[in-house]
Amino acid sequence: MAVNKVNEDLLRERARYTFNIEELTNFIDGGEEGTRNRREVEDMVIHVKELHDEVPEDYLSHKERYENAVKKGCILIDLLKEHVLRHSSFDAYKPSNMYRVLSMAKEVSPVLLHMGMFVPTIFGQASAEQQEEWLHKALMLEIIGTYAQTELGHGTFLRGLETTATYDPSTEEFVLHSPTLTSYKWWPGGLGQTANHCIVVAQLYSREKCYGVHAFLVQIRDSETHMPLPGIKVGDIGPKLGFQTANNGFLGFDHFRIPRKNMLMRNAQVLKDGRYVKSKSDKLTYGTMMLVRVMIVSDAAYELSRAATIAARYSAVRRQSMPRPGQPEPQILDYVTQQHKVFIAIATSHALRLTGGWLWDAYSSLTHDLDQGNLDQLPELHALACCLKAISSRDSNSLVEQCRMSCGGHGYMSSSNFPTIYGATAATVTYEGEYTVMLLQTARYLMKAWKEALGGIVLTPTVAYMVTYNKAKPAWVNTPEAIIQGFHAVAVGKVKEAADGIEYHQNSGKDYEDAWNAASVMLVKASECYCRAIICETFWKEIQKHSRSMSRNLAVVLQQLSELYLSYWVLERSGDFFQVRTVPLTRTKFEFVSFASPKCHCQMCTGFVAHITSVVVLAVQVSIQNLTLTFCTRKRNEFDIGSC
Ligand SMILES: CC(C)(COP(=O)(O)OP(=O)(O)OC[C@H]1O[C@@H](n2cnc3c(N)ncnc32)[C@H](O)[C@@H]1OP(=O)(O)O)[C@@H](O)C(=O)NCCC(=O)NCCSC(=O)/C=C/CC(=O)O
Ligand SMILES: Cc1cc2nc3c(=O)[nH]c(=O)nc-3n(C[C@H](O)[C@H](O)[C@H](O)COP(=O)(O)OP(=O)(O)OC[C@H]3O[C@@H](n4cnc5c(N)ncnc54)[C@H](O)[C@@H]3O)c2cc1C
């Protein structure tokens, strides 16, 4: 049988790389230790025969696929436990490491939510005594949990959740109940047949008063028989776009009793006599969602890097068409249109990975502050987690689709792995906070920041430029820093436009809620631009920071990737940049010609043409052309596909 030979074209491309592959690998893994850990785990997993499918999973029944995914989950976890006993170097029981190991199986694991949300919620919301009782069992998978918050009738609007948890002081128990069909929990991963415990988010009632949503740890299946306990209705919600083995389920309670101590009491408590002790902030209940949103940014980068690697390799080996009669068919990688599709996917995977790392550091410092009772950074981090989760998952999902399309018909095969990656990234755009809703959450924060900026109040770091912007001297030269300034100008303009929109609608007689709704498309745009500015600036700054400690050849290529990212997004948003104009240089104020609010239209028809050739736009155009043209042509020869 023919031995699998590596494709000649791919070998040739790989021979042309201009930098040290191991150095880039370490950079992506967060250092040599990270590469060693990852390789140890991959080596442990890759040789296990049972983890490779004899029959494509698409040809299995739903039951077979589920059983196959459970089998693989058990093998991976046993490997991990065995590995931990052999080495101490790999902290397997860090949820993120366990999560990463479980995601090495092609199928989404039915125990992913156990590691992805159940364990982190115990870490983040259980008291010390409760962690003592449950954490070890959860880490050893003696109990398998999920996170049951969403209901058939409510996913976004948490204050509208209908499941009730009513405290009965006579028995010191909570009575969980699903009063309506729409109150049934719907979606939680692993709930269908796998989990025997779950975190349930319910409206807490004590002494006939409602205290809002709180989290409870609930056993739903018998530990021995795995059958649902009396008063529990549970099952699988059925087929979906993807995630077929995530085992998403439904859960209903019929006056189901749990001990008082099963309310997660790190933040708020209910005492034996039913008295409610308030937490420092109601928002702490939402802590797990913030953690998962922060993690999703890095997950989005990882999934996109897989798709970009497949597309880059395919582009190197696929030969198609004959632009020159009689000449060999070229590699499709030589088509600039193919480069335009694939290179931005590579650049974005790096941009999101570095931004994800930056956000994780910000989250880690917040959790430290929260432990000290300092909530100051919570609003900004919530706003960042919301918009970065939304934009990273959306960018990742749309670029995964772009990578699939760049591979023609073979990209449509299940064996390409694009359908699995697409299904996973499509889910992240919706779960943990739906795209639009998340951007509107960030917009809430931006409207407050704008009011403070107008009052000259010093703002938190990611919005500080809103105050300084009116004082900045236009430094429109052809540099990435100038383009980042341009993104700041666009973000300020969109925030101002949205704020003016709300004011305009209020002045025309709408109350705040209706004015907010009428301006909500502009509010979403403002959040998108604020978020894009953060990713552009973070990517650029992180590359500058790390370049100082890396070899020049690698620094050059990573710098070009960040330049490509900047110029790509200026081109994608050139309309917004055209709206950014300077007033005569005697004044340093940037004004934003709005397309939306009527009062600006008159300026639009007169001012717009006059400014279309303003120094701002020309500088931006020149830098875009320079950056883009050089990158996509000159770089074709040097840009390393070999690392893919
Ligand atoms: C969309 C939300 C935030 C709206 O909440 P709402 O009740 O309408 O309140 P407000 O919009 O008025 O906000 C109140 C107040 O609280 C702040 N806030 C809200 N959320 C957080 C948070 N997470 N952290 C910190 N602060 C928060 C908000 O900024 C307001 O503060 P002000 O000072 O401005 O008053 C909410 O309903 C929401 O988050 N909805 C999304 C639900 C969600 O994400 N569900 C995920 C379920 S789990 C899942 O999907 C699992 C997937 C599988 C997997 O992960 O693998
Ligand atoms: C694959 C997958 C796995 C999941 N796993 C879990 C899980 O393990 N545990 C769990 O608890 N949940 C889980 N979920 C549920 C997920 O969290 C919700 O689907 C998500 O929060 C969106 O809520 P929803 O489905 O009710 O959509 P809705 O909120 O009803 O959104 C529908 C539309 O209404 C719009 N909309 C809603 N509110 C507003 C508003 N205020 N302003 C403007 N527009 C608005 C949205 O933008 C959207 O376009 C999962 C979902 C998926 C797809």
From TrEMBL:
Record pathway: Lipid metabolism; peroxisomal fatty acid beta-oxidation
Cofactor annotation: FAD
PANTHER family: ELECTRON TRANSPORT OXIDOREDUCTASE, PEROXISOMAL ACYL-COENZYME A OXIDASE 1
UniProt xrefs under SUPFAM superfamilies: Acyl-CoA dehydrogenase C-terminal domain-like (SSF47203), Acyl-CoA dehydrogenase NM domain-like (SSF56645)
Residues of the Acyl-CoA oxidase C-terminal domain: 480-582
Subcellular location: Peroxisome
Source domain of life: Eukaryota
Acyl-coenzyme A oxidase N-terminal domain segment(s): 20-144
Record-annotated Acyl-CoA oxidase C-alpha1 domain positions: 286-447
UniProt protein name: Acyl-coenzyme A oxidase
Homology family: Belongs to the acyl-CoA oxidase family.
Keywords annotated in UniProt: FAD, Fatty acid metabolism, Flavoprotein, Lipid metabolism, Oxidoreductase, Peroxisome
Main location: other
